[in-house]
Amino acid sequence: MVQERRDPLQRPSPEALLEAARREEGASGKLKIFVGAAPGVGKTYEMLQSAHAKRKAGIDVVVGFVETHGRAETEALVRGLEVIPRKRLDYRGQIVEEMDLDAVIARRPKIALVDELAHTNAAGSRHPKRYLDVEELLSHGIDVYTAVNIQHIESLNDVVAQITHVRVRETVPDSVFDRADAIELIDLTPDDLIQRLKEGKVYVSRQAERALEHYFSPGNLTALRELALRRTAERVDEQLLTHMQANAIAGPWAVGERILVCVSEDPRAASLVRYTKRLADRLHAPFTAISIETRRSLQLSDQERDRLADTLRLAESLGGEALTIPAVGRRIADDVISFAQGNNVTQIVIGKSTRSRWFELTRGSVVHDLVRRAGNISVHVIPGDELAEQSSSKPTVQTAARSEPFNALPYLKALGITVLGLAAAVVIKPRFGVENVDLVFLTAVVTVAVRYGLWPSLLASLVSSLAYNFFFLPPVYTFTITDPTNVAAFFFFMLIAILVSNLAGRVRIQADTAIGRIRTTEQLYAFSRKLAGTATLDDVLWATAYQAALMLKVRVVLLLPEDGLLTVKSGYPPEDELDQADLAAANWAWSNDRPAGRGSDTLPGAKRLFLPMRTGRGPIGVIGIDNDRTGPLLTPDQRRLLDALVDQGALAIERVLLVEDMDRVKRTVESERLRSALLTSISHDLKTPLASVLGAASTMRDLAGALSDTEKRDLLATVIDESERLNRFIANLLDMTKLESGAIVPNTALHDLSEIVGSALRRAAKILTAHRVELVLAADLPMLQLDAVLFEQVLFNLLDNAAKYSPVDTTIAIRSWRERDHVVLQVADEGGGIPPDELESVFDKFYRAQKGDHVRPGTGLGLAISRGFVEAMHGTISAANRSDRNGAVLTIRLPIPAQTRALDTAA
């Protein structure tokens, strides 16, 4: 057995330890996924065999839901296991079976088998997707075995559609696949799978023939098989890396290739990244670009900092990961090797050094150290030449040099502290001797270095050395030194003072840099939290503009495309217009996905610098910045900060736009549904009364002489009834159109409810002829603020609805009473009632409940119009089923006006 090689000096990764702790946590169940390239490879069969093996080992296993697809061998394996009865649901008039989630949780087995992870549950289930059922089972500590085909993984959906020309609608998020504790790939060659298909072991004969012609071609199956193998290998590789990091195991374990490229401020670094990208593509491996930040990094020029940042951005744009790592070891090579071993890197790419042999002998060579210490890691040393240097891209945006005006105050304070040190030295010399005087001066030098930096501390070192010589080394009050011993003491004092000041000054620079980064990180974190809490596009744009202006001290405008043209959407300070030069630069930046304007190599005469805002889907907008200074706008550090702000803002804008797109799609789907329902309603409800009218009129015309007076009256009654029905249908359509457009404004006044009820009953007399009407109105009802016409229409619609859904010779009851500050009016029938899950749906447009042959057809608009009218008069309407007998009851609650309540109180 291979022994795991642990590095005693390397600590486990905290992230990996947290992940391991989460997986070992007893409160959550374990997830095992059986993955296949296509249906029929044997995922369910293998899952059932594993379940039988666990059952023989004494482990409690139940079948939550397994789909056998009529395969005899699969059904035989199911018979030997305990099966939880399925839940039966009524879905669109058909009975469908789903997993009974509550029954499985109540049974609490050790392992539950749940087939078809990507399945969409029927309406009425607790969760819309089966993978959500699985997550709930896991949260209750139940282990789950499940199966899924590779085409159902969300990130591969587009790839599968391109290969098979079939868009898979049921998908599983990658997060579910990645959180699995175990992945088992069920592999079958395309020839074997096609043979199984021909034998009828996958689909029935007719489906099998169609599948062979389209989805199950050898090319498709080979491509899907490769996808399944690669995706499973990626997940296994992640598990291996987590295991190595959690156990501090020094890599590499060369089970898969990982490439690391070392970059610096060298102009050839960009070519090095491109070479690594080509190597990664050949090996089908991920790559990472790292830069080790040392003390020397703080001394880089602005041009070198900018070049390094561009190189790291290039690595990210090529699909790699870019990291900047602070130096920990004494040598850069040690930090590179430590990172490589901790991340299971198998190959390192580094450029050949162009430094002199003398430099390498005195200061060492990173390349040589890396080759000597790499161990089992392959090291690619790429020679640099002039061609590679010329291939490095020129920065598209000029950056400003960091200019700090000379400030004499720190130097004066350094001299003052040195004078104080001299005074203290004079005081302690008689008591402690000249041997301890130098410590006082060193203390002053360190104080200056810590407070004011390197150069003031060097001045303090020089002045302290001269003061030490002049005042304390004999002969005193001269700069002459006669004793050779004192010459050595003076030399070493001066050397130590300079070294200490240099070291303390560098520590201060590093501390200031770290504090600055902490502040920037905190601001970026606060900005990301602010963006996460915004839901509208205007809020996101304002937050982005404000944050960029605040952190960079510039003016900001944000432009987004609208109807094919870039339009200013936000700015800080607010600005609505751009001049022609700025607008041209903004459009060029948008069209070419490159910076333009001030300080760039394109349209530099513009007032502002414009940068494209892009995400993984492409550019989504443009940001423009300017200030009152002349020359380039940003330093390299500010440019990197702006990139971070722009990236976060672009992602937030994309999120909001995607939400708006989804809402737009939903509205489109709803419009199409309403359009289809309207056409269906018109084709039936308009055609039927017209046909009746046409038939009656034609009969009267063609057979006028043969018809009796009674028959003529009946035909005329038919024409009138159907015309009134048609009139109601058109009136409903017009009322709904007015409601949705907001054209209906109630003309309210104080009315007696009983008068409006009586008017509605007289109007509905014809449709109520086959029913008994029971009217019970309270005698003390107050006057209500109503639109009499609209409320009469509401009551007419309710009575019409009750007559439609109630059998002949049944009673329709109208009751009203006072309830505190409201008047309640109910219309109850004795029909079949309303299904409990449709009590709210009955008020939707074009909604018509399931009805028998005795029910007159309708548009499905009556109750929707009633709700609109009632709510326009500040009331509410709801539906329920009667508790005393069969039937539905529709309840209207209307507020009692304040003036009516005042009159009642006075009375």
How would you characterize the overall build of this protein?
The chain is built from 28 helices and 25 strands. By secondary structure, the protein is of the alpha/beta class. The termini are far apart.
Short description:
By secondary structure, the protein is an alpha/beta fold. The protein contains 28 helices and 25 strands.
List the helices and strands and how they pair.
Elements: H1 14-24, E1 31-36, H2 43-56, E2 61-65, H3 72-79, E3 82-83, E4 87-91, E5 94-98, H4 101-107, E6 111-114, H5 130-139, E7 143-149, H6 157-164, H7 174-178, E8 182-186, H8 190-198, H9 205-213, H10 218-246, E9 259-262, H11 269-283, E10 287-293, H12 302-317, E11 321-326, H13 332-342, E12 347-351, H14 357-363, H15 366-373, E13 378-382, H16 386-391, H17 409-432, H18 437-452, H19 454-472, H20 484-532, H21 537-552, E14 555-562, E15 565-572, H22 580-592, E16 596-597, E17 609-615, E18 618-626, H23 636-702, H24 709-741, E19 749-751, H25 753-763, E20 772-777, E21 784-786, H26 788-804, E22 811-819, E23 822-828, H27 862-872, E24 876-881, E25 888-895, H28 898-906
Parallel strand pairs: 1-7, 1-8, 2-3, 2-6, 6-7, 9-10, 9-12, 10-11, 12-13, 20-22
Antiparallel strand pairs: 4-5, 14-15, 14-18, 16-17, 17-18, 19-21, 22-23, 23-25, 24-25
Helix pairs in contact: 1-10, 2-3, 11-12, 12-23, 13-15, 17-18, 17-19, 18-19, 18-20, 19-20, 20-21, 20-23, 21-23, 23-24, 24-27, 25-26, 26-27
